[in-house]
Write a structure and sequence with these properties.
With 120 residues, this protein is an alpha/beta fold. It has one domain: 2,3-Dihydroxybiphenyl 1,2-Dioxygenase, domain 1. The chain contains 3 helices and 8 strands; from the N terminus they run βαβββαβαβββ. Strand 3 and strand 4 form a beta hairpin. The protein is globular, with a radius of gyration of 15 Å.
Length: 120
């Protein structure tokens, strides 16, 4: 068995594609009527499709999972984050951990939790 993708829910597909391209450099591999596969295995799906598929309400900012990215140039990433068109809603402000790693946690525009940290 092999894990192929991670799917997150979005409310505005164009906004989300732009967000993940600008901040993380992810490109669209497949755009298929409300479901978009990006490089690195991230899948975006429109909220209405997901709610219909699972017959449940979406709960943003549920803190049950996060997307984790590693970035060697944390200062460069933080500058990019600061200049992002979207307002950044921090969960944990940029900080250096006791082990020397730098990290930040924030929400994407749809309330999906993201962590960016320097490599181990």
């Amino acid at each position: 068995m092999k894990l192929k993708n991670v799917l997150i829910i979005v409310h505005d597909m164009e906004r989300s594609k732009k967000y993940y391209k600008e901040l993380f450099g992810l490109d669209v591999i497949l755009d298929n009527d409300g479901t978009v596969i990006l490089t690195e295995g991230l899948v975006l799906q429109e909220a209405g499709l997901w709610e219909k598929a699972i017959d449940r309400e979406i709960i943003p900012r549920n803190h049950a999972a996060e997307l984790y990215f590693e970035e060697a140039d944390m200062e460069g990433f933080l500058r990019k984050l600061d200049s992002c068109e979207e307002t950044v809603q921090y969960v944990n402000r940029p900080a250096e951990q006791s082990c020397g790693r730098k990290m930040v946690r924030f929400y994407d525009p749809d309330g999906n939790l993201i962590e960016v940290a320097t490599p181990v």
